[in-house]
């Protein structure tokens, strides 16, 4: 039997044709699908209308007296006036502009903003916590922690300010008030109001740690001075001056000083020392009177 062969090389595509009527029929959606689409469109439109119509009532509700912050009490204030803290609270809360949702509402009052602005406005305050006393409570308690004086920073005109352990300068000291703690100088421009500045920035941690180690070794620091560049001076009550690198490790520096003072060259001669240079690791330079 002879084989039958179809030579496809002579055929052209397009043998099967789809008529326009078939295509149109395939695209035509069902009546149910069209009805559902209209329902969704109408539902969305009605929802938008309802939302717009109820927005004024939502705004009015947030201003209702039953959901508005009430009495403000202050805890933890010793040297700072509670009235001053309340004044910053009220000024921050009522900033003079209209808000669609009341800032005094117990559910979304700007707690973080209040804490930040109170701390920024009163430098003596170290930390602030604002909270209500219950889920639906209207009364607010502002709890503050005040900064403790670690020493005093004085400029060249002998105008002095309180400084805390982190180096933050937070209050001016009136003339005639006793100077408690260490005295610091330098590192801050004379033209700059020092309140709000941090003495020696991140290096203050090394300075404080070194002062504590000196105290443990019964070497009483009295005055600390620096230009804020690379090193600082510590003047002891005994009259000895120590020159220290700001970037140095306090424990290593204190150990080197202890070894130097107990060495044959300086043992029993501390009263004759003028200064010791501790900036060069294991090599210490000193000068006697």
Please render the helix and strand layout as text.
Layout: H1 20-27, H2 31-62, E1 72-75, H3 82-93, H4 111-121, E2 125-132, E3 140-146, E4 151-154, E5 160-163, E6 169-172, E7 182-185, H5 204-216, E8 221-226, E9 231-236, E10 241-245, H6 250-261, E11 273-280, E12 283-288
Parallel strand pairs: 1-3, 4-7, 7-8, 10-11
Antiparallel strand pairs: 2-3, 4-5, 5-6, 8-9, 9-10, 11-12
Helix pairs in contact: 3-4, 5-6
Name its key features.
9-stranded mixed β-sheet; Rossmann fold; elongated; Ubiquitin-like (UB roll); 289 residues; 6 helices; alpha/beta; 3-stranded mixed β-sheet
Descriptive account of the structure:
The chain is an alpha/beta fold and 289 residues long. The chain folds into 2 domains: 66-146, membrane protein fhac (Ubiquitin-like (UB roll)), CATH 3.10.20; 151-288, Cell division protein FtsQ/DivIB (Rossmann fold), CATH 3.40.50.11690. 30% of the residues lie in helices and 23% in strands. The protein has 6 helices and 12 strands. The strands form 2 sheets. It has a 9-stranded mixed sheet, with helices on one face. It is elongated. The model has no long low-confidence stretch (mean pLDDT 87).
User: CA-to-CA gap between the ends?
Assistant: 131 Å
CATH superfamily of the largest domain: Cell division protein FtsQ/DivIB
Q: Quote the beta fraction.
A: 15-25%
CATH top level class name of the largest domain = Alpha Beta
CATH fold-level topology of the largest domain: Rossmann fold
Mean pLDDT: 87
Number of DSSP helices? 6
The helix content is 25-40%
Count of domains: 2
Which shape, going by the Cα principal axes? Answer: elongated
**What does the largest sheet look like?**
9 strands, mixed
Widest beta sheet: strand line-up: 6-5-4-7-8-9-10-11-12
Gyration radius, rounded: 38 Å
Question: Secondary-structure element order, as H and E?
Answer: HHEHHEEEEEEHEEEHEE
Low-confidence stretches: none
Question: Architecture of the largest domain, according to CATH?
Answer: 3-Layer(aba) Sandwich
Keywords: Membrane, Transmembrane, Transmembrane helix
Protein name: POTRA domain-containing protein
Organism: Candidatus Kaiserbacteria bacterium RIFCSPLOWO2_01_FULL_50_24
Transmembrane segments: 39-58
């Amino acid at each position: 039997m002879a084989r039958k062969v179809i030579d496809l090389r002579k055929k052209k595509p397009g043998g099967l044709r789809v008529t326009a009527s078939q295509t149109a029929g395939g695209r035509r959606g069902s009546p149910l699908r069209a009805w559902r689409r209209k329902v969704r469109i109408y539902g969305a439109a009605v929802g938008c209308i309802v939302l717009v119509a109820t927005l004024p009532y939502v705004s009015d509700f947030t201003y209702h007296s039953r959901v508005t912050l009430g009495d403000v009490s202050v805890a933890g204030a010793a040297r700072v006036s509670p009235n001053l803290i309340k004044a910053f609270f009220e000024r921050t809360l009522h900033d003079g502009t209209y808000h669609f949702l009341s800032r005094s509402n117990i559910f979304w009052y700007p707690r973080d903003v209040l804490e930040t602005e109170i701390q920024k406005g009163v430098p003596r305050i170290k930390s602030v916590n604002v909270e209500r006393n219950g889920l639906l409570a209207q009364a607010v308690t502002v709890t503050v922690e005040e900064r403790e004086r670690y020493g005093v920073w004085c400029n060249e005109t002998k105008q002095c300010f309180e400084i805390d352990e982190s180096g933050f300068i937070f209050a001016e000291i009136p003339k005639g008030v006793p100077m408690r703690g260490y005295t610091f100088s330098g590192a801050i421009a004379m033209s700059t109001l020092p309140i709000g500045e941090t003495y020696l920035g991140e290096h203050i941690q090394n300075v404080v740690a070194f002062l504590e180690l000196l105290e443990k070794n019964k070497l009483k620091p009295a005055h600390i001075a620096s230009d804020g560049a690379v090193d600082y001076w510590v003047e002891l009550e005994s009259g000895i001056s120590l020159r220290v690198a700001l970037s140095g490790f306090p424990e290593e520096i204190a150990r080197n000083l202890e070894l130097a003072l107990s060495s044959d060259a300086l043992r029993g001669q501390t009263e004759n020392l003028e200064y010791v240079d501790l900036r060069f690791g294991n090599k210490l330079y000193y000068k006697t009177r």
